[in-house]
Amino acid sequence: MARIDIRNVSKTYPGAATPSVADIDLAIADGEFIVLVGPSGCGKSTLLRMVAGLEDITGGEVSIGGRVVNKVDPAERDIAMVFQNYALYPHMTVRENMAYGLKNRKTPKTEIEARVAEAARMLELGPYLDRKPRGLSGGQRQRVAMGRAVVRQPAAFLFDEPLSNLDAKLRVSMRGEIRRLQRRLGTTSLYVTHDQLEAMTLADRLVVLNAGRIEQVGAPLDIYHRPASTFVASFIGSPAMNLLDAEADGARLRIGQNVIQAGAGFAHRGPVTLGIRAEDLHPAATGLPFRTDLVEELGAQRLVHGFIDGQALVLALDPSVPVRDEMFLTVAPERLHLFDTAGGKRIGTTDVRAVHARVPA
Amino acid sequence: MMNRATPFDHLILILATLFMVLPVAVAIMTSTHTAVDIHSNGLSLAPGGHGVETYTTVLTKQGGFTGQVTGLRMMMNSLILGIGFAVGKIVLSMLAAYALVYFRFRFATAMFWVIFTTLLLPLEVRIMPSYQVMSDLKLLNTYTGLIVPLLASATGTFYFRQFFKSVPDELLEAARIDGAGPFKFLIDVLIPLSRTMMAAIFVIMFVYGWNQYLWPMLMTTEERFFTLMRGIKQILQVWIGSQIPDYNEAFALAILALAPPVLVVVVFQRWFIKGLTESDK
C-alpha cells in the first residue's frame, strides 16, 4: 500500500529527436486504480515501465510510498507486474511460479506456502498448482500471473495490457475479476490498456495519453461527458463522438446551411469543431436534415451512419425507432461539445455532470 | 494430412535402410570371424564363432610399443575427449551467448560476427599455432591440452544466441521484478529452458569430439592417451612381411568406436529433435 508520485517524468530514447514521454505529472493516491489509456505508441507502456524500473527515467522523478526510486532496482521497488503475454516461467509449476519471487527474497518456507495457498484460493487456482503453464488456458495463465503479483503483497500492482491476449468473452470476465481483486486488496494499481472500454470500466481515474503527453485526467464518466479535446472525444466512447465542422456566431452554430442553438452563455466566433455523442441525437419533426447511409444492428441498439450536410455522422437509436432515409435530428444544447478547430481543445463549457448521477462506488 | 504410404514408399525406405545398415552389419558379423578366415574368405554376413574372444582381446590386450594401452583404455580416452568436448563447449558457448544477448556492451554485434566468422576457419588452419601454444604451456600429453584448445565453438554460440533471442524479454523482466539477478536468471530460468538445446548440442559435439583424429594425434605421443580412432589405425599398420593384419580386431574396434555415439544419439534423440526444431516457451 503506497502512493505513487510521478513528477515531470520524461523519456527520450537515445538518438530520438523528440521524447516518447514528456513531462508527465501524476499523483496516485493509496489504493487508487489508475488506468493509462491511449493509442499504440502514445507512451503509456513506457511510462508504466519507468515506474516498474524496467526503463531508465531520463527526466523527472518517480516516487513510490514517498521514496524516490529513479535509481532503485525493479526488485527493490516493492511493485509487482502483470505482463500482456503473462511471462510465466514455462518450466516451473504454477506453485513455483508464484513462489519464485518470494523465494528470491528469502521469505520463510511456511510463509511462502501460506501466501501461495491464499492466492490460489482467491484466484481459484487450487486444482492447478502442480501443473505447468503450458497445461493451462489463457485465462488461467493470466490468473497465475496475477497470483504471482498478489503473493508478493507489494505496494503497487502494475498491469501492462494484461487482457489483450484473451478472447472477448474472457476479457470481460477477467476485467471483473481484476477489479474485484483490487478492491478487496486495496492495492494501488497502475493499468495500461489501449481498450477504452476496459479503461472506462476499471478505472477510478483515467489518464488519456497522446503522443507522450497527458491529454486528460479524470473519473471515467467525467472524461466521457466532458472530454478536454477532440482527441479524447474521439478516443473514449464507442462509437466515437461525432465531430463536425461548424461556424460559431455567439450562441448560434452554423453547420453548412443549418443553424442550431448552443447552450446559453456561449460566446465564440469563428470556426469550431462540434462534438455530439451518437446517443444524444434524436429524430424529430424538424431539425438537422440527416441522410441515412448504412444501418448497423447491434441488438440492444442500432447504429445509423449517414450525413448532415456532407459530414459523416453516426447515431445510436433504440431498435423501436423507425429509420428513414431522410430524417431530422435534434440535440439538447447542453449535450453539445465545442472544441477549438485549430488546437482541438475544449471551449464553451456547459456543465453536463449534473445530468448523469454518479454510480455509487 | 499426408497421403497414405504406398508399397512403393515402403520399398524406398527399406532400400535406404539396407543401404545404411548393411555395412555396419557386415562389420559386426565379420568381427566375429578369425583374421585368417577373413583373409581367405573376405567379408561375411554370417556370424562366426569367435566374437567373444575377439572383443575380449581388443578390450584387454596390452598393445603398442610400451604395452600401456588396451582397448578399454582407448575407449575411456575417447569418452573423456567426447564428453569433455561436449560439456565444455556447451558451458563456454552458453556463457558467450548469454553475454552477447543479455549484456548490451559495446561492439556486441561485431563481436558476435567475429565469433561467427571463425566457423569459416577449420581446425587445420590454426593447428600449428594451437600446437605451439599448448607446447609452450607444457600441456602436450594431457587431457587439458587435448580438450581445451578446441572448446571455443562458433556453432554452439550461434545456436544458443538464437535460442536466447527467442526467449521473450518479458521473462527477463518478470525475473528482474521477482528479484533474480543475472546469475540467478541464468541458473533458474535460462538453463532449464535450454535443456533441449543443450541436449542437441551435446549430441553434435560429442560425436565431433569422439571422431577427432588429427588433433589427438598431434597433441599426444604417449600411448596411454591414445583414442579409439588412433587404435584402429595402429592395428591396420602392422602389415609386416607375411603376417596377416588383425582384420577381426580392426573391425571390432570400429564397432566399439561406433557404439557410444550411436548410444548417445539414441538416448538424446527425442530432445535432439525438440531442441533443433521446436521452441518450447
Summarize this structure as a short list of keywords or feature phrases.
heterodimer, A: 361 residues, alpha+beta, Rossmann fold, OB fold (Dihydrolipoamide Acetyltransferase, E2P), 2 domains, six-stranded mixed β-sheet, six-stranded antiparallel β-sheet, elongated, B: 281 residues, mainly alpha, MetI-like fold, 0% strand
- Specify the helix fraction band of chain A: 10-25%
User: Could you name the ranges of chain B where pLDDT drops below 50 across 5 or more consecutive residues?
Assistant: none
Oligomeric organization of the protein chains: heterodimer
CATH class of chain B: Mainly Alpha
CATH superfamily of chain B: MetI-like
Summing up helix and strand content along with how strands pair, one would put the structural category of chain A as alpha+beta
The biggest sheet of chain B, with number of strands, parallel, antiparallel or mixed sense and barrel status, is: none
User: What is the CATH class name of the largest domain in chain A?
Assistant: Alpha Beta
Gap between N and C termini of chain B, in Å? 26 Å
Which whole number gives the mean pLDDT of chain A? 88
> What is the number of helices of chain A?
8
Q: Could you give the order of the helices and strands of chain A?
A: EEEHEEEHHHEHEHEEHHEEEEEEEEEEE
Morphology call of chain B: globular
Backbone structural class of chain B: mainly alpha
Low-confidence stretches of chain A: 350-361
Provide the domain count of chain B: 1
Strand residues, percent of chain A:
25-35%
Looking at CATH, which topology of chain B would you report?
MetI-like fold
